[in-house]
Fold each of these.
Amino acid sequence: MKEVKGIRVCGLALAFAVTACGGGGKAADAGPVLTPQEQVARLEASGVLPTLERGDSIAGTDANANGVRDDIEQHIERKYTVPAERAAAMQMARAYQQMLLVDKRDSLAVEEVVRISSKAVDCIFDTFVDIDAFARGSQMSRELEAITTNSRRRLTSYLEFNRAASGSVSGSFKGNGCD
């Protein structure tokens, strides 16, 4: 009797697991299962995600040498149509790019990038002033951070910058932080 109960419990647990995982036969109706790379490609093609450069270079391509990777600049131009918001996004993107590229052993250079990034953050909050805009500005900063650090080498460089900048102090700017 004990074994029968054990089998029943195990059988019910297995049936629940299969059902919870979509084992009810509906998965076949949803179409083929896509790999993460295929899912990202579809989202990029639809415009839900920006199409990003994923090469091995930390710097990426910046054909016009304005300090912002071309793929990120293209995303900013599409997403931010208000000129002041676009300028704030570009300033923040430049700051993130400098975080990746600065010599992390040069404490003065790291401090300068901390100052530049603080100024860019001030620019965001000077530009996105009401509550809804403030939330959009915060979201923009997080999004730019994510797309700037979109490869293992870039993320590692960003984390190295944060270690090098740990303990740095930067104040708020008087007036507008925008360039």
Note: The chain has a mean pLDDT of 82.
Amino acid sequence: MAGRQMTYLTDALMITCIVQASQAEKVVKAAQDVGAQGATVTYARGTGIRERMGLMGVAIDEQKEMIRIIVSQEQADRVFEAMYLAGDLDKPGMGIMFMNDLDRIATYIPDEIMAAAKKPAKKKPVKKPAAKKSGAKK
């Protein structure tokens, strides 16, 4: 890769959430409201116990939306919780979600962001409390 550089991002996780059709928009909004940058939504068809619930053995076709969001370790818990609640995943048949560690991620990162990431964090000066004088009052 002459003249080109690949930068890997680490300490990231991917949250995958599978919900009923037409629910993805509110789940993605909830994730963005707590700091997620973006999401990928794809459409899928699910199978499972519901297909056995069809009338006279006829399978019920279940349309699903699959949401994938990459987040930092710092964001992971709050984004996961927000998505879970927005998708009503605490109710039967609403969906499932899970989180995976990502070994590395590669994408374009603007130079100014890379430069800022390489700079050591500026330390704020710590103010020391004024020393109290001890002794008898005059």
Note: Residues 15-104 form a domain with the Alpha-Beta Plaits fold (CATH 3.30.70.120).
Amino acid sequence: MNDFDYFDINNPITPKRGDLLISEPYLPDPNFERSVVYLCEHDENGTFGFVLNKPSLLHFDEVIDSTEDFKELLMVGGPVEQQTLHFLHRTPELMKSGKLIRNGIHWGGDFERLLSIIQNKIINPADFRFFIGYSGWAEGQLADELESKSWIVYKGATATQVFDTDPDELWRTVLKAMGGKYKMFSNYPSDPRLN
């Protein structure tokens, strides 16, 4: 398999950092209903990432002092530690820090530098995604969920998917791009009783 193969429930592959987890259409967990999770870490100790398509009710300037007028919407990165703020970006030349995950997508970086580029209005908000909380799985937990077919794995997320795709359309857009039966999944109604 190459880096862009998709998860096949008959031949499961192990996700790795930089992949997307896409919730199956009727996942019963309300924290992850129709979610797309970007994986920042996946190893023998567990898995860590951010939900890309769950907006919160908060904006950046409402939670961080000294950033008035920076109205970027915060996404709910997951149900864990929702009092924490995290970010992904694609501007290492501007941030000068952060961990490269894959395909030009960086996680975190120097928070003081982030505040400085916000205050000096040299930030392009389209190059960042901000999250409250994160998604985490203990050792072996995600493997069990994959085995029970709760998630579909998309290999090698692009910066366009992470930063440029409308969060409201991301779940459907990624499934459509995968084609075949996944394209059919993208058309499933949110409530099967409505079908």
Note: The longest helix spans residues 167-178.
